[in-house]
Design brief:
InterPro entries: Gly-zipper. Keywords: Signal. The protein is built from three helices and two strands; from the N terminus they run αααββ. The chain is mostly helical. It has one domain. A hairpin with a 5-residue loop joins β1 and β2. It starts with a helix and ends with a strand. The model has no long low-confidence stretch (mean pLDDT 80).
Length: 89
């Protein structure tokens, strides 16, 4: 996979993930797995692309799941002075 395909593909994956609604943990896990698979395939040699995608999807999914669990039910709000705070949604 060339850098150009990666540069086009990753933003598309991110846009599709942003359009999803539902459980933030599930969304984060799926987004992490997709991005990890794309990145794993991109950085692997031509003979190991499938293995790279599988490893990338696994690591990305685990990372996305951990991120989603840490942020579940929490939203970031911005005050009038520009500062931000996190509270329950």
């Amino acid at each position: 996979m060339s850098i150009r395909r990666l540069a086009i593909g990753l933003p598309i994956i991110a846009l599709l993930a942003a359009c999803q609604t539902g459980d933030p943990v599930t969304n984060s896990t799926a987004t992490g797995a997709l991005a990890g698979a794309a990145l794993g395939a991109a950085v692997s040699s031509s003979s190991d692309r499938t293995q790279g995608a599988i490893i990338g999807a696994t690591v990305g999914g685990l990372a996305g799941n951990m991120i989603g669990r840490n942020n579940a039910g929490q939203c970031v709000y911005r005050r009038a002075d520009g500062s931000t705070y996190t509270a329950a949604c």
